[in-house]
UniProtKB/TrEMBL annotation:
Catalyzes the reversible conversion of 2-phosphoglycerate (2-PG) into phosphoenolpyruvate (PEP). It is essential for the degradation of carbohydrates via glycolysis. One of its GO terms (biological process) is glycolytic process. (2R)-2-phosphoglycerate binds at Q163, K337, R366, S367, K388. Component of the RNA degradosome, a multiprotein complex involved in RNA processing and mRNA degradation. The gene is eno. It holds the Pfam family Enolase_N. Binds a second Mg(2+) ion via substrate during catalysis. Pathway: Carbohydrate degradation; glycolysis; pyruvate from D-glyceraldehyde 3-phosphate: step 4/5. One of its GO terms (molecular function) is magnesium ion binding. Mg(2+) binds at D242, E285, D312. Belongs to the enolase family. This is Enolase.
Length: 417
């Protein structure tokens, strides 16, 4: 009988050279699976909690020795002897053992690390990719990539209010063509910035970091880069933004520090609508604050039939929050970050619910990423409509795009979407 014989956890470094958790599950066959867990820079208050050491003398308090101890002393004794194929049973045990609504006892990092490592071990044992193991012969498609180009907000050291300016290849017939569009626009943008004597250093998600005179200037720069790369904006390439409004939503108003303006929800919605009138914006992520429910409903009524409105902080990959959003008709798409919820099974249930409700599904990296490519496998296996892995600039992002290319090789007629 195939069983789990050992679970090992260790500290490793993420893409920001911060400490994060890696978990390895060993089977009695000698096969093993591994998972390393990313962490976000900007975090929604409703997402599951990590366990960190909070020791200022060690890695600025970000060490995960407590999480390692939890894996070794609380989780390992319960899982050893179980079949790695019993994913739902194992995830249910982890949830029950934690016993909190936000994973605060065991920590979402420890829980997800074990959950994904189990799935990876089972996939290795089955001589399958994680994608094939999870999909169970379900028809698979390539998700449409969203490419980061400019970073602002918490990702850009406050150079503007909005967190990410992105592009989407609109007519790419397959993944290679979409990646070529992303690369070409990224290089064109770099050339434009260099010609103006602007630094071309990049953020944690790979976007350039110019100081912008306004939030709108990020869009005008992307329009220029799209043209410089030989494409037509709105036809070949669309614009996308992670506005991350929760970062500047205070006291019921939207504080645009980069522009010296404070707007009511109504005025901010009008502002966003005007941007959509002026630019070929296809997607807005977190255009409003996570608890501005009335505003979200109004904005969805106004723009939901025209563009994709993605809830990240609004939903935090949380099924209860998402079901509330469905009932109130907020957003029409959901960002999926497995570490916001804690287990593979919960992620699958959330995606299933989103499909049934007709919402778009965008799998996303975190700003503190690792070389782990499991999220690429999950996105394809669960038929995500889009992925947000960053720009064409940093290794942790390229590892995930490269994994998509590998998966494409075994998907018949691997069109995007």
């Amino acid at each position: 009988m195939l069983t789990i014989t050992d679970i090992r956890a260790r500290e490793v470094f993420d893409s920001r050279a911060d400490i994060t958790l890696e978990v390895e599950v060993v089977l009695n066959s000698g096969k093993r699976g591994r998972s390393s867990i990313p962490t976000g820079c900007s975090k929604g208050k409703y997402e599951a909690l990590e366990v960190r050491d909070n020791d200022p003398k060690r890695f600025n308090g970000q060490g995960v020795l407590r999480a390692i101890e939890i894996v070794h002393t609380l989780i390992k004794p319960r899982l050893c002897g179980m079949s790695p194929y019993a994913q739902e049973e194992i995830d249910g045990m982890l949830i029950s053992l934690d016993g909190t609504a936000n994973k605060s006892r065991l920590g979402a990092n420890a829980i997800l690390g074990v959950s994904l490592a189990v799935a990876n071990a089972a996939a290795v044992q089955s001589n399958m990719s994680l994608c094939d193991y999870i999909s169970r012969d379900r028809e698979k498609f390539m998700p449409q990539p969203i490419f980061s180009m400019l970073s602002g907000g918490m990702h850009g050291d406050g150079n503007c209010d909005f967190q990410d300016y992105q592009v989407i290849a609109l007519n790419a017939p397959h993944l290679e063509a979409a990646l070529q569009v992303g690369k070409n626009v990224h290089m064109a943008l770099k050339s434009i910035l260099m010609a103006r004597g602007i630094s071309t250093g990049v953020s944690g998600t790979g976007g350039f970091l110019p100081t912008l005179s306004s939030n709108e200037q990020g869009l005008t720069l992307l329009m220029e880069a799209i043209g410089e790369a030989g494409y037509e904006a709105g036809v070949d390439v669309g614009l996308s933004m992670d506005i991350a409004s929760e970062m500047f939503f205070k006291d019921g108003r939207y504080h645009l520090a980069a522009e010296g303006r404070i707007l009511s929800t109504s005025a901010f919605i009008d502002y966003l609508a005007s941007l959509c009138e002026s630019y070929p914006i296809m997607l807005m992520e977190d255009p409003l604050g996570e608890d501005d429910f009335e505003g979200w409903t109004t904005l969805t009524q106004l723009l939901g039939g025209k563009i994709e409105l993605v809830g990240d902080d609004l939903f935090t990959t949380n099924l209860t929050r998402f079901e509330q959003g469905i009932a109130m008709k907020m957003a029409n798409s959901i960002l999926v970050k497995p570490n916001q919820v804690g287990t593979l099974s919960e992620t699958v249930r959330l995606v299933t619910s989103a499909k049934e409700a007709g919402y778009g599904i965008v799998f996303s990296r975190r700003s503190g990423e690792t070389e782990d490519t499991s999220i690429a496998d999950l996105a394809v296996a669960l038929n995500a409509t889009k992925v947000k892995f960053g720009s064409m600039a940093r290794t942790e992002a390229m590892a995930k795009y490269n994994q998509l290319l590998r998966l494409q090789d075994v998907i018949p007629n691997a069109q995007i979407g």
